[in-house]
Amino acid sequence: MATASRYVSNVQIHAGPTMNFTGTVSITRNSESDASVTVSVSGNVYMPYGGSYGEAYSGHGLSASFNSIDNSQIHGNVENVYNGKPFNVSFSTSWTNGNGNVYINCRFGSKGSSALYCDKGWADTLLASIPISELPYNPYRQPTIGCSTSYIISRYDTRREMWIDGNASGDNTDTDTWVIVNGNRENWDIGNSGGTYGFYPNQKGVSDGSSYSFQAYRQHTQRRDWTASTSITLYTYRTPLISSFSLNNLNFSGTGNTTLTWQTNAKRWNNYIGNYTGENNFITYLKFNTDNVWFQSSNNNPIQSENNALVNETQTLNKTIIDKHFSVAQRSQDKVDTVISIKRNNPSSGVDSTVLQQNISVQFRPKYRPDNDTNINNPPVSLIYRENNSTGNSISAGSNVYVDDVPNVYVQWTYPSNADGGVIDGYIIRIYEDKAKTKLFKTFEVNTSNLTASRIFDITKELKRGILNYISITAFYNKPDNSGKAEGPALDYPFILPLGRLHKPVISYPINNTQWHNPNFRILFELPEDTDYDTYDDDILNNYNYRNIEVRINNNFIFAFKANTENMTSSAIIEDKAFSTSDLSYKLRICINPSLVTGFPITTLYSMQVRVQKNYYQPVWSEWSDLVNLSQSSISFSVNKGDLILADHFNRMRNWSIRLYNVYPINSLSNGNITVNIDDIIYKDIYDVVYNTVLGIQTGVNNWAVFDANRSNVKFNQNIYELSGDNKVKVEVITALPNNASENGRNYIKLIVDCMNKLY
Fold this sequence. Notes:
Blueprint: E1 2-14, E2 19-29, E3 36-46, E4 52-53, E5 61-66, E6 81-82, E7 85-94, E8 100-107, E9 125-130, E10 147-148, E11 153-154, E12 160-164, E13 175-181, E14 184-187, E15 195-199, E16 211-220, E17 227-236, E18 242-247, E19 251-253, E20 259-264, E21 272-273, E22 276-277, E23 283-288, E24 295-296, E25 311-316, H1 319-325, H2 328-331, E26 335-346, E27 351-352, E28 356-363, E29 384-387, E30 400-402, E31 408-414, E32 426-432, E33 440-446, E34 452-458, H3 459-462, E35 470-478, E36 485-494, E37 497-499, E38 507-509, E39 514-516, E40 523-526, H4 538-542, E41 548-553, E42 557-560, E43 573-574, E44 589-592, E45 605-613, E46 628-632, H5 647-663, H6 684-704, E47 733-734, E48 739-740, E49 745-746, H7 748-757
Parallel strand pairs: 11-17, 19-28, 30-37, 39-46, 42-43, 47-49
Antiparallel strand pairs: 1-2, 2-3, 3-7, 4-6, 5-8, 8-9, 10-12, 12-15, 13-14, 13-16, 16-17, 18-20, 20-25, 21-22, 23-24, 23-26, 26-27, 26-28, 29-31, 31-34, 32-33, 32-35, 35-36, 38-40, 40-44, 41-42, 41-45, 45-46, 48-49
């Protein structure tokens, strides 16, 4: 809104009577484009000479007009005029050109008449003239323009569109329009209309992954200084790139044990740009030609980058991926030759990178023998044998392993970690009785995918006893089509020779740390148990024999049953007649008379041991038996005629019997073998008991073992009859001599001691 005003003072507006006007003349325009203006005249009428003009009834008065009285309409009221009369008139009119002349008019006529004259000639008195330049009239409008889009980001190499709004100023005067894209101007004359402007960003010098300015302009053809403009920043998607695709192993197992490597870029923009959808993260895809199905990589990095740099990325293939993209039939083959492809995708633009490919071979059947050294001609470097468990002592291939000492053997092997080794579901272990693998003994299965695996074998139950076992270990793969196992090359190698020992012999008699009365003692023992006994065939069992026996006296005097058996003592004296029998059948009881061996030492102390040689599988010797010590001290008794027979004499004889009995306590000792006290009556029955103790030693030894008919001298073979049969103890005279016919008596103590000394 604008107003132009003029102040006027004492302007004569009438004569007869004289009238002057003082006040303000104003013109107001709401806007340049509005033709209507408001004219206001405000002030006072003065009649310098007094009086009044007109009468109320006659309608004499004044009015105001715009430009002249000749306007088609009277403006203002017709009123009587008097000195100091206030005059206020306001009216609207159209003013589009020329000066705005405001008049005051003298009017004559009735109130409300349209008389256009003044009888005094003052119909038009100019109060003020206001140039239109002060309140200019302009019918044109400032043009408008706007642009919009439903998407702010697009591909750089495809057509995109922008909507340009029509001119909303209300002025239909022609306008010129143009656009500027990335600094490139193009006139696009749509006048005042709206429309869709299409263009290719790359034709405007815009590359991928860029931002650029879009501007639209509209200019008034009649007012060139009037131009409307709008602008918006637009974006282009980045093109995904991928290069340098490789695998660390082009030939790899069906477990997917290989690593893919590539270089790729990332998106340029965020997921959202203002209120618009931006650019989503790039996705890396892989594909095998086995099923031609693209699948998403687990590694979609990098996420976002301003500089479009290519970054090294990796992914390891795994068995899950292989199983999903290779059919059952394919995975049941030994290997599959195929192609792996890779690409990078911008999901927002739908653009893929160049597809890169590599020829690959996927191995399913195990390819190598279970050994870190895949050279089949070399001894295995990763085959381990140990006693009992993983921490046991090492066992050399082909060695004897005694089941008595080592009940179990631990076997460990390692399949090569080569990438193309195939799929390992387990191992088949075959035990053969021969190197040529013609005699299969047993088969075992270890179900594990571990490259390093192991099994503990129960030697007594799972290996062939007495011969060198051969082990064959083969990795296998369970074919998914259920057609069986696909086996790889076998690891064949000597295993062990499981062997049972003869148990350690036990010298039953003499009892350790006892005392005998001469060097003619006997050694009694049972041939030892053979741990392998239950593994022999019937032919051996029916004819079982031990190979040899050795006896060691005082550590350096050694004699043997027979000569020329393996690993016997080189200095051993061969004397089979010292043994009670030539029959060395299973667990037979043997009696040995060492004193029959040439050069047998005579001493007061003997230490003795025996060992036995095995006759089957391997001629191994048992351990030496535990040491048995036996001392030697002679016994004798004599009296003179007239000597008293004392209790001490009896007790000495009786105690000797007990001493000897303790060496060979085979038969039960009678409770009557007791000592006597001074003044005790020594009854004849007591002598019988002591005598029978001595006889019991002889019969105990002679009946304990097996004796051949021609080996009687191995027994205690002296005839002890002194107090037997007709010579039994009876009531008679006790003499100094064992037998005194003249006095019809005997010396019982002497007789029994003599019997003791017949134990040789």
